[in-house]
Amino acid sequence: MSTRDEMTPWSRDEFEARLRGLGARYHIHHPYHRMMHEGHCTPEQIRGWVINRYYYQVSIPIKDANVLANCPDPEARRLWVQRILDHDGAEGEVGGIEAWLALAEACGLDRERVASLDDVLPGVRFAVDAYVNFARRSTWQEAACSSLTELFAPEIHQQRLTGWPDHYPWIDDSGLSYFRKRLSEARRDVEHGLRVTLDHFTTRAEQEHAMSILQFKLDVLWTMLDAMWMAYVEDRPPYHSCPEASR
Ligand SMILES: O=C(O)c1cc(C(=O)O)c2c(n1)C(=O)C(=O)c1cc(C(=O)O)[nH]c1-2
Protein backbone atom coordinates (compact mmCIF):
# COMPACT_ATOMS: atom_id res chain seq x y z
CA MET A 1 0.00 0.00 0.00
CA SER A 2 1.44 3.40 -0.92
CA THR A 3 1.81 6.22 1.58
CA ARG A 4 -0.90 8.08 -0.29
CA ASP A 5 -3.36 5.21 0.28
CA GLU A 6 -2.49 5.17 3.95
CA MET A 7 -3.36 8.89 4.16
CA THR A 8 -6.62 8.77 2.20
CA PRO A 9 -9.65 8.82 4.49
CA TRP A 10 -12.06 5.94 4.16
CA SER A 11 -15.40 6.92 2.71
CA ARG A 12 -18.20 7.21 5.27
CA ASP A 13 -19.56 3.83 4.18
CA GLU A 14 -16.17 2.15 4.31
CA PHE A 15 -15.45 3.63 7.74
CA GLU A 16 -18.81 2.38 9.05
CA ALA A 17 -18.20 -1.05 7.52
CA ARG A 18 -14.79 -1.24 9.24
CA LEU A 19 -16.30 -0.28 12.60
CA ARG A 20 -19.00 -2.90 12.13
CA GLY A 21 -16.33 -5.40 11.11
CA LEU A 22 -14.92 -5.25 14.64
CA GLY A 23 -18.08 -7.10 15.67
CA ALA A 24 -16.05 -10.22 14.84
CA ARG A 25 -14.40 -9.67 18.23
CA TYR A 26 -17.55 -8.95 20.21
CA HIS A 27 -17.92 -10.77 23.52
CA ILE A 28 -20.81 -12.73 21.99
CA HIS A 29 -17.95 -15.02 20.81
CA HIS A 30 -16.34 -15.36 24.24
CA PRO A 31 -16.47 -18.96 25.56
CA TYR A 32 -18.45 -17.79 28.60
CA HIS A 33 -21.17 -16.27 26.44
CA ARG A 34 -21.11 -19.20 24.06
CA MET A 35 -21.57 -21.57 26.95
CA MET A 36 -24.39 -19.42 28.28
CA HIS A 37 -26.19 -19.32 24.95
CA GLU A 38 -25.78 -23.04 24.36
CA GLY A 39 -27.48 -23.70 27.68
CA HIS A 40 -24.43 -25.21 29.37
CA CYS A 41 -24.02 -22.80 32.29
CA THR A 42 -24.70 -24.01 35.79
CA PRO A 43 -26.93 -21.84 37.99
CA GLU A 44 -23.78 -20.68 39.81
CA GLN A 45 -22.17 -19.62 36.53
CA ILE A 46 -25.26 -17.63 35.53
CA ARG A 47 -25.40 -16.07 38.98
CA GLY A 48 -21.72 -15.19 38.89
CA TRP A 49 -22.24 -13.42 35.58
CA VAL A 50 -25.30 -11.52 36.88
CA ILE A 51 -23.42 -10.42 40.03
CA ASN A 52 -20.42 -9.15 38.08
CA ARG A 53 -22.36 -7.56 35.24
CA TYR A 54 -24.20 -5.52 37.86
CA TYR A 55 -21.00 -3.53 38.32
CA TYR A 56 -21.13 -2.67 34.61
CA GLN A 57 -24.78 -1.66 34.95
CA VAL A 58 -24.17 0.76 37.82
CA SER A 59 -21.05 2.17 36.19
CA ILE A 60 -22.63 2.96 32.81
CA PRO A 61 -24.60 6.01 34.05
CA ILE A 62 -21.43 7.30 35.75
CA LYS A 63 -19.60 6.82 32.47
CA ASP A 64 -22.39 8.73 30.70
CA ALA A 65 -22.30 11.52 33.27
CA ASN A 66 -18.61 11.88 32.41
CA VAL A 67 -19.49 12.11 28.73
CA LEU A 68 -21.95 14.90 29.54
CA ALA A 69 -19.38 16.69 31.68
CA ASN A 70 -17.01 16.80 28.71
CA CYS A 71 -19.62 17.82 26.14
CA PRO A 72 -20.10 21.51 25.35
CA ASP A 73 -22.87 20.88 22.78
CA PRO A 74 -26.39 21.31 24.27
CA GLU A 75 -28.04 19.36 21.44
CA ALA A 76 -25.75 16.37 21.98
CA ARG A 77 -26.18 16.59 25.76
CA ARG A 78 -29.97 16.59 25.41
CA LEU A 79 -29.78 13.31 23.50
CA TRP A 80 -27.10 11.80 25.71
CA VAL A 81 -28.84 12.49 29.02
CA GLN A 82 -31.49 9.96 28.03
CA ARG A 83 -28.91 7.21 28.52
CA ILE A 84 -28.63 8.07 32.20
CA LEU A 85 -32.41 8.04 32.58
CA ASP A 86 -32.59 4.66 30.84
CA HIS A 87 -30.46 3.15 33.59
CA ASP A 88 -31.49 5.19 36.60
CA GLY A 89 -35.17 5.25 35.63
CA ALA A 90 -37.16 8.34 34.81
CA GLU A 91 -39.95 9.38 37.22
CA GLY A 92 -42.45 6.54 37.49
CA GLU A 93 -40.47 4.18 35.27
CA VAL A 94 -38.29 1.17 36.02
CA GLY A 95 -34.72 1.85 34.92
CA GLY A 96 -32.04 -0.59 33.85
CA ILE A 97 -30.39 -0.84 37.26
CA GLU A 98 -33.67 -1.84 38.90
CA ALA A 99 -34.41 -4.23 36.02
CA TRP A 100 -31.01 -5.85 36.55
CA LEU A 101 -31.73 -6.33 40.25
CA ALA A 102 -35.03 -7.95 39.23
CA LEU A 103 -32.98 -10.29 37.03
CA ALA A 104 -30.73 -11.05 39.99
CA GLU A 105 -33.75 -11.92 42.13
CA ALA A 106 -35.22 -14.04 39.33
CA CYS A 107 -31.94 -15.97 39.42
CA GLY A 108 -32.34 -16.60 43.14
CA LEU A 109 -29.86 -13.96 44.28
CA ASP A 110 -30.32 -11.59 47.18
CA ARG A 111 -30.73 -8.05 45.85
CA GLU A 112 -28.94 -6.39 48.78
CA ARG A 113 -25.97 -8.68 48.36
CA VAL A 114 -25.73 -7.97 44.64
CA ALA A 115 -26.14 -4.23 45.20
CA SER A 116 -23.35 -4.30 47.82
CA LEU A 117 -20.85 -5.16 45.02
CA ASP A 118 -19.01 -7.29 47.58
CA ASP A 119 -18.76 -10.27 45.23
CA VAL A 120 -17.51 -8.41 42.16
CA LEU A 121 -14.22 -9.85 40.92
CA PRO A 122 -11.20 -7.52 40.88
CA GLY A 123 -10.60 -8.18 37.16
CA VAL A 124 -14.15 -7.08 36.36
CA ARG A 125 -13.76 -3.97 38.48
CA PHE A 126 -10.53 -3.03 36.72
CA ALA A 127 -12.02 -3.51 33.27
CA VAL A 128 -15.17 -1.53 34.02
CA ASP A 129 -13.24 1.22 35.78
CA ALA A 130 -10.97 1.51 32.74
CA TYR A 131 -14.06 2.25 30.66
CA VAL A 132 -15.36 4.89 33.08
CA ASN A 133 -11.92 6.48 33.31
CA PHE A 134 -11.61 6.50 29.54
CA ALA A 135 -14.84 8.52 29.31
CA ARG A 136 -13.60 10.82 32.06
CA ARG A 137 -10.37 11.67 30.25
CA SER A 138 -11.44 11.61 26.61
CA THR A 139 -13.34 14.00 24.40
CA TRP A 140 -17.05 13.29 24.34
CA GLN A 141 -16.79 12.17 20.73
CA GLU A 142 -14.14 9.59 21.68
CA ALA A 143 -16.41 8.39 24.47
CA ALA A 144 -19.33 8.23 22.02
CA CYS A 145 -17.19 6.07 19.76
CA SER A 146 -16.34 3.76 22.65
CA SER A 147 -20.03 3.06 23.22
CA LEU A 148 -20.34 1.61 19.72
CA THR A 149 -20.02 -1.99 20.89
CA GLU A 150 -23.75 -1.45 21.31
CA LEU A 151 -23.94 -1.91 17.55
CA PHE A 152 -23.59 -5.59 18.29
CA ALA A 153 -25.63 -5.75 21.51
CA PRO A 154 -29.20 -6.25 20.20
CA GLU A 155 -28.21 -9.67 18.85
CA ILE A 156 -26.84 -10.79 22.21
CA HIS A 157 -29.92 -9.51 24.08
CA GLN A 158 -32.18 -11.28 21.57
CA GLN A 159 -30.23 -14.52 21.99
CA ARG A 160 -30.90 -14.41 25.73
CA LEU A 161 -34.59 -13.67 25.26
CA THR A 162 -34.93 -16.55 22.83
CA GLY A 163 -32.68 -19.11 24.51
CA TRP A 164 -32.92 -18.65 28.26
CA PRO A 165 -36.55 -19.75 28.81
CA ASP A 166 -35.68 -23.17 27.31
CA HIS A 167 -32.17 -23.52 28.70
CA TYR A 168 -32.72 -22.02 32.13
CA PRO A 169 -36.38 -22.54 33.07
CA TRP A 170 -35.47 -21.98 36.72
CA ILE A 171 -35.04 -18.25 35.96
CA ASP A 172 -38.38 -16.51 36.25
CA ASP A 173 -39.38 -14.96 32.92
CA SER A 174 -40.07 -11.60 34.58
CA GLY A 175 -36.30 -11.33 35.11
CA LEU A 176 -35.67 -11.02 31.39
CA SER A 177 -37.28 -7.60 30.98
CA TYR A 178 -33.85 -5.89 31.09
CA PHE A 179 -32.89 -7.55 27.80
CA ARG A 180 -36.25 -6.68 26.21
CA LYS A 181 -35.83 -3.05 27.21
CA ARG A 182 -32.30 -2.81 25.80
CA LEU A 183 -33.30 -4.01 22.34
CA SER A 184 -34.81 -0.65 21.40
CA GLU A 185 -32.60 1.50 23.65
CA ALA A 186 -29.37 0.10 22.19
CA ARG A 187 -30.59 0.67 18.63
CA ARG A 188 -31.43 4.29 19.40
CA ASP A 189 -28.10 4.86 21.19
CA VAL A 190 -25.99 3.55 18.34
CA GLU A 191 -27.82 5.62 15.78
CA HIS A 192 -26.61 8.72 17.63
CA GLY A 193 -23.18 7.33 18.58
CA LEU A 194 -22.51 6.25 15.02
CA ARG A 195 -23.53 9.62 13.58
CA VAL A 196 -21.20 11.41 16.01
CA THR A 197 -18.34 9.06 15.17
CA LEU A 198 -18.74 9.24 11.40
CA ASP A 199 -19.04 13.04 11.52
CA HIS A 200 -16.17 13.66 13.91
CA PHE A 201 -13.40 11.28 12.85
CA THR A 202 -12.79 12.34 9.28
CA THR A 203 -9.07 12.13 8.48
CA ARG A 204 -7.57 8.70 7.99
CA ALA A 205 -5.52 9.06 11.19
CA GLU A 206 -8.66 10.01 13.14
CA GLN A 207 -10.61 7.11 11.66
CA GLU A 208 -7.85 4.71 12.68
CA HIS A 209 -7.89 6.26 16.14
CA ALA A 210 -11.65 5.57 16.30
CA MET A 211 -10.99 1.94 15.37
CA SER A 212 -8.51 1.65 18.23
CA ILE A 213 -11.03 3.13 20.64
CA LEU A 214 -13.62 0.55 19.66
CA GLN A 215 -10.98 -2.16 20.05
CA PHE A 216 -10.27 -0.87 23.57
CA LYS A 217 -13.94 -1.24 24.43
CA LEU A 218 -14.00 -4.76 23.02
CA ASP A 219 -11.03 -5.46 25.30
CA VAL A 220 -13.02 -4.21 28.30
CA LEU A 221 -15.92 -6.55 27.58
CA TRP A 222 -13.71 -9.54 26.77
CA THR A 223 -11.57 -9.07 29.87
CA MET A 224 -14.61 -9.00 32.14
CA LEU A 225 -15.57 -12.45 30.88
CA ASP A 226 -12.01 -13.75 31.16
CA ALA A 227 -12.08 -12.90 34.88
CA MET A 228 -15.45 -14.63 35.26
CA TRP A 229 -14.21 -17.70 33.38
CA MET A 230 -11.28 -18.07 35.77
CA ALA A 231 -13.50 -17.76 38.82
CA TYR A 232 -16.63 -19.69 37.84
CA VAL A 233 -15.53 -22.14 35.14
CA GLU A 234 -11.92 -22.95 36.04
CA ASP A 235 -12.80 -22.51 39.72
CA ARG A 236 -9.70 -20.39 40.15
CA PRO A 237 -10.85 -17.12 41.70
CA PRO A 238 -8.15 -14.65 42.79
CA TYR A 239 -5.86 -16.02 45.52
CA HIS A 240 -7.20 -19.57 45.13
CA SER A 241 -3.59 -20.78 45.06
CA CYS A 242 -2.48 -18.98 48.22
CA PRO A 243 -2.46 -21.56 51.02
CA GLU A 244 -2.78 -19.01 53.79
CA ALA A 245 -5.28 -16.67 52.18
CA SER A 246 -8.90 -16.61 53.19
CA ARG A 247 -11.44 -14.18 51.77
O1 LIG B 1 -25.37 -7.47 27.58
C1 LIG B 1 -24.49 -7.09 26.83
O2 LIG B 1 -23.79 -7.85 26.19
C2 LIG B 1 -24.28 -5.63 26.72
C3 LIG B 1 -23.21 -5.09 26.04
C4 LIG B 1 -23.04 -3.71 26.01
C5 LIG B 1 -21.92 -3.21 25.21
O3 LIG B 1 -21.71 -3.74 24.10
O4 LIG B 1 -21.19 -2.34 25.65
C6 LIG B 1 -23.95 -2.88 26.72
C7 LIG B 1 -25.03 -3.53 27.34
N1 LIG B 1 -25.19 -4.85 27.34
C8 LIG B 1 -26.03 -2.77 28.03
O5 LIG B 1 -27.01 -3.37 28.51
C9 LIG B 1 -25.92 -1.38 28.15
O6 LIG B 1 -26.78 -0.73 28.75
C10 LIG B 1 -24.79 -0.75 27.57
C11 LIG B 1 -24.39 0.58 27.56
C12 LIG B 1 -23.19 0.60 26.91
C13 LIG B 1 -22.27 1.72 26.67
O7 LIG B 1 -21.14 1.45 26.25
O8 LIG B 1 -22.65 2.88 26.93
N2 LIG B 1 -22.88 -0.65 26.50
C14 LIG B 1 -23.84 -1.49 26.88
Automatic annotation (TrEMBL):
Keyword Iron: no
Pathway in which the depicted protein is active: Cofactor biosynthesis; pyrroloquinoline quinone biosynthesis
EC primary class: oxidoreductase
Residue ranges of domain Thiaminase-2/PQQC in the record: 17-226
Swiss-Prot/TrEMBL catalytic activity: 6-(2-amino-2-carboxyethyl)-7,8-dioxo-1,2,3,4,7,8-hexahydroquinoline-2,4-dicarboxylate + 3 O2 = pyrroloquinoline quinone + 2 H2O2 + 2 H2O + H(+)
Keywords: Oxidoreductase, PQQ biosynthesis
Keyword Metal-binding among record annotations: no
InterPro entries for the chain: Haem_Oase-like_multi-hlx, PqqC, PqqC-like, Thiaminase-2/PQQC
Enzyme Commission code: 1.3.3.11
Family stated for the protein in its record: Belongs to the PqqC family.
Protein purpose: Ring cyclization and eight-electron oxidation of 3a-(2-amino-2-carboxyethyl)-4,5-dioxo-4,5,6,7,8,9-hexahydroquinoline-7,9-dicarboxylic-acid to PQQ.
HAMAP family assigned: PQQ_syn_PqqC
Protein name: Pyrroloquinoline-quinone synthase
Species name: Salinisphaera dokdonensis CL-ES53
Organism classification: Bacteria, Pseudomonadati, Pseudomonadota, Gammaproteobacteria, Salinisphaerales
Gene designation per UniProt: pqqC
